[in-house]
Amino acid sequence: MGLIKTTQEIYYKGEQVFYLNISNSAFTLSYTYSLSGFEENLSATDIRVYVESGDFTPGETSFVNRQIFNFTVSNNVLTVATGGDGDDAFDELSEISVDGVLRVELINHMFGGYRHTSLADVVNNFMVSYVGDGKLINNVAKSDVVFHAKRGLQEFSYDILKTVKIQEIELGPSLALAMPQDYVSYVKVCYIDSSGIKKIIYPTRLTTNPTETPTQDLNYNYLFSSDGKIIEGSSYTENQWQGFDTDNLTGNLSTEEDYYISRDNHLGTDFGRRYGIEPEHQQINGYFTINERTGSFNFSSDLSGKIIALEYVSDGLGTDSEMKIHKFAEEALYKHIAFNVVANRRNMPEYIVQRFKKERRAAMRNAKLRLSKINLAEISQVLRGQSKRIKN
Amino acid sequence: MAISVDRVYRKVLAILNKESRGFLTPDEFSKISSQAQLDLLDKAFHDYNRAISRESTGRTGVGYADIPKKIQDRIDPFYATSSVTLTSGVGTLPTFYNIISISADSRLTNIERIKKSKLSFLLSSPLTAPSTTFPIYYVTGSTITVNPSTLTSIDVDYISVPADPVWDSTIDSNGALTFSSDNAVDFTLHPSSEVDLVLEILRYTGVVIKDPSVIQSATAETTQKVQLENS
User: In this structure, is residue A303 part of a structural domain?
Assistant: First the structure.
């Protein structure tokens, strides 16, 4: 049996249509509809249901895209409630004796799901094919397998899988962006210019974000709350950095600014010549720091109002729908689970543990290569630039 | 596929009466039969485990030499399935001898049995916390507790406790007992267990009629059979 369970119509349109037929001028109406054509196990919150008919008579009740709400879904069977708005719609359709349809639409319809295998399928497949009588793993608790599968998914998310998420946000005057809910580490931070081209923003070592900011009295003693905890205040470093004009670093100054700055502040020695400038600061895209105290990204003041694209990695376990593995890495995940089960088992011969370890490493390497998308044509295209003369 | 209670009773009586050792009444036979049937069912699990161990060392074959499958056939007649309704994750199990598996969502989601000592760790660990995709259960007596409690119905696959065999009879005008199938209950055991069943009943019968020689010969026969199977 093939792995594709849903029809092409459902896949490409994200909906299934049930025809309401007329028989001798009377509708043959059913109140239950099988949703087994949909690949996933649906609940009522996953779908929208509409009733439509071909009756477009002016002045009459329209049945075009009439959404109904009184229905339930259990075991992938849709039941239109009798006496509810669906029932009413059916009644009206039968009065005018015109063919109609019941349309079930997926709320979150996505393409490309075939690339992945769900974590539940991985666990079930593992229990079927790796565990049992006559196998190396004769018995293992399913919760152990789930644990190793989830840990594997986390590790793979960091090293192998291309599960980079990109959050696009407009930076406000606070110059801070909260870390995404499922944030683990950033890959790249950019701002998007008016042409839609991304400009990389680099982290800076010029400033820092204190993790503790105790408040002090006039005698420099710490201030404590009534329950004995230090009262935290705002950070002087961050406030100053927020107010700092990074043009002072990059040299992106107007003639007038240059004139005054060269005389009045620390860049005076750079007037007319910038021999000592740090190459890492020779860019005008701005800077960011990671503020561990507040769990946010802080940006330099020149990025205020810019659209920031934050590329980051998660661990793949944030939501149930994320708990899936690319088919290129599926085998590696089985090997990862098997190795961890075997390695934690008492009296398991070490040569078997080592065998699983090697198999796991090889499978992970394969997965990484496959997912790297190393394409000869694309590489050739990029390398054509090597013979281009660098122009100033 | 059951074993006829009448046939077994006649065999037992035939062996007992060969040397006029005594008579086993139908009531005594029914009680002993129940005990013997449970003994053999329990023994089948151990036999299966032993056969699997032998299989893992490569000492079994396929087809007629597939001993694990043969023993599995002995257990299969006791297989039963039942749907249990849960209220707040709690339900009452049918009388079972051994639970094979419990599932939900029309058997698409397997529910894992966990050790109660691990419950708090499982619940508190974010990676192993039970969910509708990976639910868990534990059993206390005949009560099953499923987590998450949102599950409302489960399917239980189990080995049932067999009904007590009954050799039912009618009495004719001469006072003779004649077997009546109306209210008789046959053995649930697989036909391949019939020899073991007769020997087991004879062993218990020896105790009832206080004849050590019956016990000894039945035990010797059983021992010889076990040795043959394990050689």
Answer: yes
Which pLDDT does position A84 carry in this prediction?
Answer: 79
Cβ-based contacts of B131 with chain A (< 8 Å): 320
d(CA A210, CA B156): 58
- pTM of the predicted model, to two decimals? 0.80
Same-domain check for residues A46 and A149: no
Query: Does residue A85 sit in the same domain as residue A193?
Result: no
Residue A372 lies in a domain: yes
**B139 phi and psi, to 5 degrees?**
-115, 135
Say how many domains are in chain A. Answer: 3
Same domain membership, residue A67 and residue A19? yes
- Nearest-Cα distance to chain A for B57, in Å, is 9
Residue B75 in contact with partner chain A when CB distance is under 8 A: no
The answer to whether A332 and A155 have CB atoms below 8 angstroms apart is no
Note whether A190 and A325 are same-domain residues: no
Q: Is residue A111 part of a domain?
A: no
For chain B, give the number of residues. Answer: 231
Give the span between the Cα atoms of B135 and B114, in whole angstroms: 10
Confidence grade of residue B60 (pLDDT, cut at 50, 70, 90): confident
Those residues with Cβ within 8 angstroms of residue A12's Cβ, 6 or more apart along the chain or in another chain: none
Q: How many residues does chain A have?
A: 392
All residues of chain A having their beta carbon less than 8 Å from the beta carbon of residue B136 are: 143
Contact criterion met (CB below 8 Å) for A33 and A78: yes
A187 touching B, CB under 8 A? no
Neighbours of A39 (CB within 10 A): 15
Q: Is the pLDDT of residue A188 over 90?
A: yes
Q: Are residues A131 and A168 in the same domain?
A: no
Query: CA A258 to CA A247: how far, in whole Å?
Result: 10
A136: which 2 tokens?
Answer: 């190396």
Q: Percent of chain A, pLDDT > 70?
A: 84
Q: What range defines the domain where residue A290 resides?
A: 164-246+284-313
Last residue of a domain, one of A313, A330, A353: A313
